[in-house]
Amino acid sequence: MRRLIPCLAAAGLLALAGCGAPAAAPQAPPASSVARSTAAKPSPSEEAAAQPSGLVSTTQNTAGDPNGTPVTVAYASQGVANWPFFAAAAAGLYAREHLKVTMIQMAPNVTITALSKGELDFTNSPGNAIEGALRGLPFKVVLSSWDESPWTIVGKPEIASVKDLKGRTVGTNQAGSTPYLYLQAALKRDGLAISDIKVVSSPGTQDTYRLLLSGQLDAAVLSPPTDAQAVDKGFREVAFIGDTLHQPYIGLGADTSYLSQHRPEAVRLIRALMDANGWLKGHPDQAANLIEQNLSVPPNIAKQLTQRMLPLLSQAGELAPAGLQEAISIQSELTKTNISVKPEDLVDWGPLHEALGKP
Question: pTM score, two decimals?
Fold first, then answer.
């Protein structure tokens, strides 16, 4: 059975934001730079999960050069998915690029609206960008930070398989969201349909986790760290479902008007995040220190988590055309419409190639 993997909490970004001065080269933050919580205190992600995020959260974290170009990035939930963003702050990469990056927690549907109105610069969800683009909005995916999604179904102890979900109440994000699609694919793989279960939708994974803990769900689609936290509280891993689809996980998406007017900022942000992936892979001990500091976990566990997570980070930053075509087909099925968009219409790898020094 695939081991569950906890992750860095977004609340830890404030602690990592002390690298405001430009850095000539990324350096590991000192081990004492972030105070650890006591064992009795819940982790930041558990504290956040105790309250529903609602449609728009007031959670905002800023890192980088205080005098740098402001950039806003929306994210739906706190989790391992955002590790490159935290590492870019911790290693001084935002500061090196003279960027002042603010992460804002928002529900996916609100993110799409805010992005289309120019109230945001980026979403960290390529899935949001693709969904908006397939609705006719001028969105493009410009970066994919991960090669694999970690979605897992966690449920009550008596639920041993996906087939056991029939007739049960299962929680996930809103219809059409990435975890919803993975749930749908997992059910199909085991001969079930979404209509065979009772779906409870929530704005984000933290809210789904809260509903599971409160007893309102029989099972839930979770990602690190909420999956591991649920197992620690007596639930069981029903099935790892991150291999049922090839959908994008976390990266960057933006409106084409922003990209045309602020291409230098897009290139610099992408370069910081791609270098963050490389920094994490090249500095496993320091990467483990980040997990240890922000999750208050023992060093041996932090090292184990680092070893398991680093291989999932993307080295190329691009999405495969097959995955993009899969996203088009899924959206066409959901909307019961014929979508004539081509995979290449959903992406703009120009800023990525510029950031990587490719021709």
Answer: 0.76
